[in-house]
Amino acid sequence: MIERFYLKEALSFEELNLEFDANLIIFTGPSGAGKSILMDALLSLFGLKDATAKSAEISLDAPMNLESIGIEEERPNIFRLENKKSTRYFINDRQVSKKNLKNLSSSYIHYLSLRDVNEFESHTILNTLDRILTQEDTDYESVLHTFESNYKALQQKRQELQQIREEAQKITDLKEFAKFEIAQIEEIAPKVDEYEELMRQKKELSKKEKLEALIDEAYEIFTYESKVSQVLSELDEESPIFDEAMNDIRIKLENAKERLDELNALDIEAMLNRLDKLADLKRKYGSIEESLAYLERKKEELSRYENIDDTREELEAEISKLNKIIQKDAQTLHTKRAKALNTLKTKTNHYLKHLFLDNLSLNLTKGEMHRLGFDEISVTLNNTPLAKVSSGELNRIRLAYLAAKSDLLKGESGVLILDEIDANLSGKESMSVATVLEQLAKTYQLFAISHQPQLSSKAQMHFLVHKENGVSRVKLLNDKERIAELSRMISGEKVTKEAVEFAKSLLA
User: Fold this and answer.
1) CB within 8 A of 407, min separation 6: which ones?
2) How would residue 505 be classed by pLDDT, with cut points 50, 70 and 90?
3) 34, 350, 400, 503: least buried by Cβ within 10 Å?
4) Distance (Å, rounded) from C-alpha 476 to C-alpha 472?
């Protein structure tokens, strides 16, 4: 429910703050008073109209699945817009895009003046039927879930089979290329850390002669080792640090000579060629480790190519089995949906009768298999597609359909915004619209502009929109003021006694 609506600097409105505590809320007033400006400003907070107000805000006490766009849910949730150089939208002080705002609001905010037939699309009605059946039939949800799971698995298997068939057409080339890449890596037979070891050897080779000369010169230090030990002995001084240092130096020099001797035995040309091959692998795959991982993947790929016929036959068998299961479950869904559709159609036509419209045809047929089964639903009024009926008829059809859904779906609720739903209707037709809206108001919060006294008399909150010195203002009417406003709507600015009596009778 929308609990509060704030508006600042919106065309003829300076500032406005309204609070709502009822479900059927009607705005009336003379032409040009600002009713449409007010309604458009309300719609703009949900991204359904362009913003004209400098700022606007509503508090909406309803769960809105805000977590889906990364916003924390609050009670109430605060929707706000700021319109300066550009329009920015906020939910609970977090900025959102207009697109996300519209998507988020679409399941809860319904605007009937938009010429929108999306709710009569086949998949939308099928989803509605599934919701109705899930409430009524404890087994239905299990069948539906099993079908959806198997259909998803079937699509995955079909994609795998398609890939295999495409690969089979060029299998020879794929196998040869996989063999070539495998042979290329296996011929080199790289080892982890081998490249780094060869690079160390190459570096030592580049300074081998210099190192050998330096080592020979360094060995002269041992010529004086005995002299130093003798001096220390004559001085009665122990020399463990000196002895350890000389031993450490001796070991390091001997190890270095051994490495240099090993280098003399190396085939330098072979080593450099090996380094080049390993460097090529590093450039191509990123590292020796990654080249070895790629080798394993290619071996698996080659194995799959060589066993592709067996894999294809297995997939075809699995697809055939899944198809049979899905067909059976789809038929179960079809049978149950047919009964639910008949109930939905009967309910909708019940309300259409009150709205002086012919029956709506909702036909369930079988088509190609899709994610909801093989069911297709078409909707017509007197054999005319809904896209071609008049705007007035379409609005009343949507009204009847919403009322029927409201009757059949537990917990179905939301906000319904109507712009002059009773315009150009006779008094009898207007009263029929009012009766249906009164029924809808049991589960929906309704905001409507009305020019007819019949609908206005049903309001739980009746607001008058009027102008004072060119500034639009909104006033919540009490019982006496409502009689005066309804009388004006009945007879015009010159109110007659008969109009007053009729207004009282409507309210009574």
Assistant:
1) 347
2) very high
3) 350
4) 14
Statement: the pTM of the whole predicted model exceeds 0.90: no
| Helix, strand, or coil (residue 276) | helix
Residues 154-157: contacts with CB under 8 Å, at least 24 apart: 154/319, 154/322, 154/323, 154/326, 157/315, 157/318, 157/319, 157/322
Domain identity same for 181 and 195:
yes
Expressed as residue numbers, the domain containing 470 is 1-108+413-475
- Cis? peptide before 76, omega within 30° of 0: yes
Distance, in Å, from the CA atom of 148 to the CA atom of 44, rounded to the nearest integer, reads 37
In a domain, 498, yes or no: yes
Rounded to an integer, what distance in angstroms lies between the CA atom of residue 206 and that of residue 202? 6
Helix, strand, coil distribution of the chain in percent, nearest 5: 60, 20, 25
**What is the pLDDT, as a whole number, of residue 80?**
96
- Tokens of residue 104, six digits: 């988020």
Element (DSSP H or E) covering residue 375: strand 373-381
Residue in this structure with the two tokens 């198997």, named with its chain if needed:
150
The residue among 258, 293, 309 that closes a domain is 309
CA 155/CA 184 separation, integer angstroms: 37
The domain total for the chain is 3
Q: Are residues 23 and 67 in the same domain?
A: yes
The string of pLDDT tens digits covering residues 462-496 is: 999 999 999 999 999 999 999 999 999 999 888 89
455 domain residue, yes or no: yes
Six token digits for residue 46: 């949900």
Over the range 21-55, which residues count as b (16 or more CB within 10 Å of their CB) and which as e? eebbbbbbbeeebbbbbbbbbbbbbbbbbebbbeb
Torsion angle of C-alpha atoms 283, 286, 291, 294, degrees rounded to 10: -120
**Residue 114 binned pLDDT confidence (cut-offs 50, 70, 90):** low
Burial of 446 (0-12, 13-18, 19+ CB in 10 A): buried
Calculate the CA 292 to chain-centre distance: 39
Q: Does 91 map to a domain?
A: yes
Q: Where are the alpha helices (DSSP H) in 137-189?
A: 140-169, 171-188
CA proximity to 27, closest of 9, 12, 40: 40
Q: Pairing relation of β-strands 2-10 and 384-385? A: unpaired
- In this predicted model, what pLDDT tens digit does every residue of 189-231 receive, in sequence order? 888 888 887 888 787 777 777 777 787 788 888 887 878 887 8
Helix or strand run (H / E) with residue 471? strand 471-476
